[in-house]
């Protein structure tokens, strides 16, 4: 079952930059196809060989899609793990992946027909038994970070070697696109059993590239899968992710020819790259990724909704966008951006910058002298600048935020897993289906719900409605309820949606950005 998405497509120009609203509401799949044909026409015939060298801004949290949690992992996971369902980069509409077809014979059964002849990197078959083993592990393993994704999945039944039935506890029309993310990344069951916890560092998937090695905070190396089911791929002999957490250093490595590309850059690096002329190709496209403040609502004082609302009124989103994103982003209220099909436009000004109201809410909550909170975040220079903006805005209403900074993986572990700290700033990179952000950030078992605080009952009902409605208008009504409830209960503080900015040397070809802001390099080749 395909849920339509509002199209968005990449520009055919070497320097790609369109305004968010133009991209998110641009009309029709025909436009996307036209742009894709234009891009393809300008490309030479793909060349085999070469190793793509990339400056990666984060060390992975894990290379096991089930146990990791950081959105920044995806760029390394995508080449290693094919997903059961894929998605169109411009529209996020579901497309065949390891499953070539799917259907709902009844509202509580989803049947997947699998691609024949696919094998994992260790030679074992990627068949229905493997799918069952993966999904059972994802929904039941104690260490799984994707249990929340699969809450509707009650059991998995092997029907034939190439067919599997997913039996659901309730109807779930979001499930195909849920299987386009971590929950649908298929691992070798044999490797999982044999390697135990070491599988976090030595993954075995069915994607176009095999795992080579991972040296913490240094490099992740992938090599070509010679037996990949798509005989046209991969073009490259390998991909090397050189971990360079300082974005300026990462960009300089591209300008110096040490790497072919750098991704997840900030507007500050885009300005520098734009001055380089033909030396580099700059891709800058809107995404559904946004910076947000995530709360541990189990800990005082953030267990009081009045305090969480005070933070939302204290933050000046427009000023954050100007200072942190040079005005290239879009101020955010919820995790769904203006112009996106599932977003309720009436909520665009739900929280205005109102320091007086923030101070009044703190007094009402019994904090006339203000409050102290422990604020977690990343230690790189750009993140520190973003933290300083928020810290100063909060200070003006009497909220004293003490910053603890470290690596992305360490801060995630300490805040989300060990439940240290009161608030963390993260970049939420979105998911193929809009139901997932609400499930994963606010759901009781969501991996970004640090305190594992159950959402309000009416929100649980709206979440069910968003995942059971069979038509887009019905889903849109449910998302409007979810958005409003998240705002009323101040479950997070959304700041601004960011552009996806990547910089490449001119020999990098066939790269297509996607609406998630998580680059995929599976189709890339290096021109001679």
From TrEMBL:
Pfam families in alphabetical order: SBP_bac_5 (PF00496)
Family matches, as Gene3D superfamilies: Dipeptide-binding Protein, Domain 3, Periplasmic binding protein-like II
Domain Solute-binding protein family, chain residue ranges per copy: 94-444
SUPFAM superfamilies: Periplasmic binding protein-like II (SSF53850)
Protein name: Peptide ABC transporter
InterPro entries registered for this protein in UniProt: Peptide/Ni-bd, SBP_5, SBP_5_dom
Keyword Signal: yes
UniProt subcellular location: Periplasm
Source organism of this protein record: Roseomonas haemaphysalidis
Record keywords, A-Z: Signal
Membrane-spanning residues: none
Location, primary (coarse class): periplasm
UniProt similarity note: Belongs to the bacterial solute-binding protein 5 family.
């Amino acid at each position: 079952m395909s849920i339509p998405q509002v199209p968005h497509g990449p520009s055919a120009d070497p320097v790609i930059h369109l305004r968010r609203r133009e991209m998110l509401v641009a009309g029709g799949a025909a436009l996307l196809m036209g742009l894709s044909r234009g891009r393809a026409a300008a490309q030479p015939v793909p060349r085999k060989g070469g190793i793509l060298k990339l400056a990666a801004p984060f060390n992975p949290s894990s290379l096991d899609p089930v146990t990791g949690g950081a959105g920044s992992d995806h760029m390394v996971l995508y080449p290693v793990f094919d997903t059961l369902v894929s998605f169109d980069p411009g529209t996020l509409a579901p497309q065949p992946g390891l499953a070539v077809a799917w259907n709902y014979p009844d509202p509580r059964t989803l049947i997947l027909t699998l691609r024949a002849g696919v094998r994992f990197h260790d030679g074992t078959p990627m068949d229905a038994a493997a799918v069952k083993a993966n999904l059972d592990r994802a929904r039941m393993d104690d260490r799984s970070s994707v249990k929340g994704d699969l809450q509707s999945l009650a059991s998995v039944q092997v029907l034939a070697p190439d067919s599997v039935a997913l039996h659901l506890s309730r109807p779930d029309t979001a499930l195909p696109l849920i299987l386009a993310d971590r929950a649908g990344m298929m691992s070798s069951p044999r490797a999982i059993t044999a390697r135990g916890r070491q599988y976090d560092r030595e993954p075995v998937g069915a994607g176009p590239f095999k795992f080579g090695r991972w040296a913490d905070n240094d490099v992740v190396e992938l090599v070509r899968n010679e037996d990949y089911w798509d005989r046209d791929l991969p073009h490259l002999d390998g991909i090397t992710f050189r971990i360079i957490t300082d974005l300026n250093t990462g960009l300089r490595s591209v300008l110096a020819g040490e790497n072919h590309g750098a991704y997840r850059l900030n507007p500050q690096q885009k300005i520098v790259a734009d001055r380089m002329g033909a030396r580099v190709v700059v891709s800058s496209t809107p995404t559904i990724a946004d910076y947000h403040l995530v709360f541990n609502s189990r800990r005082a004082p953030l267990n009081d909704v009045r305090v969480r609302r005070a933070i939302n009124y204290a933050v000046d989103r427009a000023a954050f966008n100007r200072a942190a994103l040079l005005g290239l982003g879009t101020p955010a209220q919820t995790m769904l951006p203006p112009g996106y099909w599932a977003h309720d436009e009436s909520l665009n000004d739900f929280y205005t910058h109102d320091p007086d109201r923030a101070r009044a809410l703190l007094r009402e909550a019994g904090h006339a002298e203000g409050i102290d909170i422990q604020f977690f975040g990343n230690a790189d220079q750009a993140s520190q600048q973003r933290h300083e903006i928020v810290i100063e805005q909060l200070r003006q209403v009497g909220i004293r935020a003490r910053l603890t900074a470290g690596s992305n993986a360490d801060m995630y572990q300490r805040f989300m897993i060990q439940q240290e700290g009161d608030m963390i700033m993260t970049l939420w990179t979105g998911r193929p289906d809009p139901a997932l952000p609400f499930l994963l950030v606010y759901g009781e078992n969501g991996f970004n719900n640090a305190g594992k605080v159950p959402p309000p009952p009416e929100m649980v009902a709206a979440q069910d409605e968003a995942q059971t409605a069979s038509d887009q208008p019905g889903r849109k009504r449910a998302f409007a309820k979810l958005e409003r409830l998240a705002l009323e209960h101040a479950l997070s503080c959304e700041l601004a949606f960011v552009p996806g900015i990547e910089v490449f040397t001119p020999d990098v070809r066939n790269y297509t950005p996607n609406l998630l802001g998580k680059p995929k390099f599976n189709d890339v080749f290096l021109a001679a």
